[in-house]
UniProtKB/TrEMBL annotation:
Keywords: Membrane, Transmembrane, Transmembrane helix. The keyword Membrane applies. This is Multidrug transporter. The chain crosses the membrane at residues 40-62, 82-102, 114-134, 154-175, 187-207, 227-244. It comes from the Bacteria. The lineage of its organism: Bacteria, Thermotogati, Deinococcota, Deinococci, Deinococcales. Residues 1-23 are annotated as: Disordered. It comes from Deinococcus rhizophilus. The keyword Transmembrane helix applies.
Length: 264
């Protein structure tokens, strides 16, 4: 007999009335999209505020126990720390949702299934890039080729900007096929994310050329940039959850339990 799902926080899990399910049972996990999005928004807000305060404390407050460690762990412009990891997980979550939708679209032989798949792959690459800081490694090679400075000081924006334009052009027909609310949500999410990742990176390049890297103005720009990126991806996640609720309402995640011994 199947266990009855009950709502528990962010997911719906199988009832605990049967702590040891039989092999023919399945555990149904259902994400509560609205609650998850609220959790992501709260986490992003905390990381942004703490990161800004950590940088502020290193510049304007007397030294105290753990100050430098806190600033390092929460620095919004850093790599392999809490904000960078959170941003990478956001992108990975968006990739997972896009991939889930793509799988359903392939099963339905939807005409836009390849675009959904391409977007899932793109966000997976962006998650890897965020985690490993791959775009930062392009700055010096590109500067050697085209001698960028000023607004193009962070030269990775040149190849990534060209790629962004190509992706947008490739998705124009796809966007026209989307429901109006989904299209608006995805476009606004894109504006926030690209505006942060590219728009503020251009401003940062100009400011660095004029005043240097280690200024409080630069740290303020980094805070705004990272905030736009985080909120842009969270808006995309919220939009995808809304799309799933409205147009793929029967979608469920099921985990099968197999207790058979592996064959030799």
């Amino acid at each position: 007999m199947q266990s009855t799902p009950q709502a528990e926080g962010l997911i719906t899990a199988a009832s605990r009335s049967h702590p040891l399910p039989t092999p023919d049972q399945q555990l149904t996990l259902q994400l509560n999209g609205r609650r998850l999005v609220r959790t992501l928004l709260g986490t992003a807000a905390v990381l942004i505020v703490v990161g800004f305060l950590g940088e502020f404390s290193t510049r304007f407050l007397p030294d105290f126990f753990g100050r430098d460690l806190l600033a390092s762990l929460t620095y919004l412009g850093g790599e392999t720390n809490l904000p960078a990891t959170f941003s990478a997980l956001l992108l990975l979550g968006a990739a997972a949702l896009l991939g889930t939708i793509a799988r359903i679209k392939w099963a339905l032989q939807d005409s836009q299934r390849r675009v959904w798949t391409g977007l899932a792959f793109l966000f997976g690459v962006l998650a890897l890039d965020e985690a490993a800081g791959l775009h930062e490694r392009l700055i010096v090679p590109v500067q050697k080729v085209i001698k960028t400075d000023g607004v193009l000081h962070y030269a990775w924006v040149v190849p990534y900007g060209a790629l962004t334009i190509l992706v947008l052009l490739a998705c124009l027909r796809f966007l026209r096929h989307l429901p109006a609310r989904t299209r608006a949500g995805m476009l606004l999410a894109g504006v926030l994310y690209v505006g942060g990742a590219f728009g503020f990176e251009l401003i940062e390049g100009y400011v660095k050329t004029l005043y240097g890297r280690h200024t409080f103005l630069m740290e303020g720009l980094i805070t705004v940039k990272e905030s736009l990126e985080m909120f842009g991806v969270i808006l995309l996640i919220a939009t995808l959850f809304a799309y799933i609720r409205e147009y793929l309402p029967g979608l469920r995640v099921q985990v099968g339990l197999n207790t058979e011994a592996p064959r030799a």
